[in-house]
């Protein structure tokens, strides 16, 4: 019996690269300091590098993607205002309602075609300041790549239209949950600034495909980041000698490391192709980045299916009648072929 484990639950399970460990080992006391006093040279370097890379004035190192999204919302709005958010976005589904609970924000969902909204519908949803009955819409959120829609890329052309729309409507701000924005840039073979130039603020994760163990970054104008820094402190995210983590973030932002994401995309395509070839009654997406979504007939009991698959060494997350398979650093083409074999074997047991 094989002890092989292929963990396809998420790209958050990635471990640091040998280069990250080497960089960590070479760190000296003079490379770290109290970051709340802005005295950690490694964190300062990471923030400067992140701002430069994304074409924004300033950046802030935060503990997680959820914290990064929340400090961004808090910095761009005031309690009682309304924000437009896609209903399957991470902010709506998986951030414990923090926008409402902590930000005091009213959430107005907009429908979308895989994350892409219709400007006509958005226009209907915007509410203005001078109406005594209504909250005022001050922020529009997008997610790129869009996790629940299978890692799809929201193209710069859409973001450009959104930006023009926002300027005409209360001059509202745009926040992009760009947890996996480098996957988007690598997939489209364009610089990340082609996406970021159309939004006011963005959060991206170091801890997903870029395989840093901890941390995310928020970018935006200097004024926005100054506010975000204060909100981060309020939320308990003011870290001290955080250079110990930031050093790995610096490695994660190296161009060659970002370009490595292409391997994950190729593996996702291999997985999708392989599952389509087994000719079982399943629907498999055409992955644009590192996520493969497999939809099963309603008769397949997803929890039982995933737990049986787990016992065979393939870890996945299931919800409703589908499973999500995420490729990432550490997953090889051989792991993909092994997974296709196991998924097919287990699925056959659950199909009539
Ligand atoms: C699109 C998106 N945004 C935000 C987050 C939150 O990141 P974290 O888990 O670091 O809080 C995630 C995490 O999976 C995500 O997929």
Explain this structure to me?
The chain has 352 residues and is an alpha/beta fold. The chain has two domains: 18-254, Aspartate Aminotransferase, domain 2 (3-Layer(aba) Sandwich), CATH 3.40.640.10; 260-350, Alpha-Beta Complex (Aspartate Aminotransferase, domain 1). The chain is built from 15 helices and 13 strands. It has helices at residues 18-25, 41-54, 65-76, 90-93, 98-101, 119-125, 156-168, 181-188, 193-196, 222-234, 243-252, 255-259, 261-277, 302-311, 333-350, and strands spanning 6-7, 58-62, 82-85, 106-109, 137-143, 173-177, 201-205, 216-220, 283-284, 291-295, 314-315, 317-319, 322-326. The strands form three sheets. A seven-stranded mixed sheet has the order 2-8-7-6-5-3-4, sandwiched between helices. The protein has a four-stranded antiparallel sheet with strand order 9-10-13-12. It has a two-stranded parallel sheet with strand order 1-11. A hairpin with a 2-residue loop joins strand 12 (317-319) and strand 13 (322-326). Helix 1 (18-25) runs antiparallel to helix 11. It starts with 5 loop residues before the first strand and ends with a helix. The chain binds pyridoxal-5'-phosphate. Pyridoxal-5'-phosphate binds next to helix 3.
């Amino acid at each position: 019996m094989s002890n092989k484990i292929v963990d396809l639950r998420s790209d958050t399970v990635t471990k640091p690269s040998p280069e990250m460990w080497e960089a960590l080992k070479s760190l000296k006391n003079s490379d770290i300091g109290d970051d709340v006093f802005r005295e950690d040279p490694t964190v300062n370097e990471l923030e400067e590098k992140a701002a430069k890379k994304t074409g924004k004035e300033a950046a802030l190192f935060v503990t997680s993607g959820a914290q990064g999204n929340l400090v961004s919302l808090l910095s761009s709005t005031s309690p009682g205002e309304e924000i437009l958010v896609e209903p399957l976005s991470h902010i709506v589904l998986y951030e414990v309602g923090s926008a409402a609970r902590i930000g005091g924000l009213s959430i107005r969902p907009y429908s979308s075609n895989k994350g892409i909204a219709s400007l006509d519908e958005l226009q209907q949803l915007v509410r203005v300041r001078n109406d005594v009955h209504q909250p005022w819409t001050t922020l529009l959120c997008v997610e790129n790549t869009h996790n629940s829609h299978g890692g799809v890329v929201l193209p710069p052309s859409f973001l450009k239209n959104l930006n023009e729309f926002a300027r005409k409507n209360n001059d509202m701000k745009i926040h992009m949950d760009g947890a996996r924005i480098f996957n988007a840039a690598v997939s489209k073979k364009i610089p990340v600034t082609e996406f970021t130039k159309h939004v006011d603020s963005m959060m991206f994760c170091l801890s997903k495909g870029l395989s840093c163990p901890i941390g995310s970054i928020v970018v935006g104008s200097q004024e926005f980041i100054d506010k975000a820094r204060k909100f981060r402190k309020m939320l308990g995210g003011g870290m001290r000698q955080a250079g110990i983590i930031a050093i790995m973030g610096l490695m994660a932002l190296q161009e060659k490391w970002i370009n490595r994401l292409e391997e994950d995309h190729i593996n996702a395509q291999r997985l999708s192709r392989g599952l389509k070839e087994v000719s079982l009654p399943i629907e498999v997406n055409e992955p644009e980045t590192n996520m493969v979504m497999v939809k099963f007939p309603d008769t397949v009991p997803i929890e039982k299916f995933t737990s049986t698959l787990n016992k065979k060494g393939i870890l996945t997350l299931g919800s409703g009648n589908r499973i999500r398979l995420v490729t990432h650093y550490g997953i090889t083409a051989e792991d993909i072929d092994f997974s296709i074999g196991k998924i097919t074997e287990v699925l056959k047991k659950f199909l009539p």
